[in-house]
Amino acid sequence: MLATFLTTLALAGTAQTAPDDTSVRIPGYQIQLPEQPYRLMPGDFNDFKGAYDMSNGDTMVLRQYGRKLFAEIGDGPRTEIVPAARNEFVSVDEQLKMTLNRNVDGLVKGELLMALPRQTMGQAGGAGVTVTLLGL
């Protein structure tokens, strides 16, 4: 649904395309923590733990330590994530949002939204974030 939203914004010309084809500047958009984290059933996160090759060449690793969930992207730091739905996770620093879907063959597909600092993408001022959509 969010991918459709991003596509719609890009086609409508209300978003500015960043130099990378997978990045779009969306004025006013923010990744937000859920008001109440979704309560996963025991073992639900097991469906998603592991390493994923991303469309930009990085690898994302999802891990669980005790009751806490973490994502590591490339050489980046370990980032705590919380469930917003059974298959949707948001980082506690509100810089990542991912949706994961396991198909009948057991393959996991999805998308990862990353809020990048404006200066990273060379964008001028204004409210909003640059969101990078990365296929998994």
Strand ordering within the main sheet: 1-2-10-9-8-7-6-5-4-3
Poorly predicted runs of 5 or more residues = 1-19
Category from helices, strands and their pairing: mainly beta
Per DSSP E runs of 2 or more residues, the count of β-strands stands at 10
Helix/strand layout:
Elements: H1 2-12, E1 16-17, E2 23-26, E3 50-53, E4 59-65, E5 68-73, E6 79-85, E7 88-91, E8 96-102, E9 108-116, H2 118-121, E10 129-135
Antiparallel strand pairs: 1-2, 2-10, 3-4, 4-5, 5-6, 6-7, 7-8, 8-9, 9-10
Overview of the structural elements:
A ten-stranded antiparallel β-sheet has the order 1-2-10-9-8-7-6-5-4-3. With 136 residues, it is mostly beta strands. The two termini are 16 Å apart. It has helices at 2-12, 118-121; strands at residues 16-17, 23-26, 50-53, 59-65, 68-73, 79-85, 88-91, 96-102, 108-116, 129-135. The longest helix is centred in the first third of the chain and has 11 residues, at 2-12. Residues 1-19 have low confidence and may be disordered. The protein is built from two helices and ten strands. It is globular and about 40 Å long.
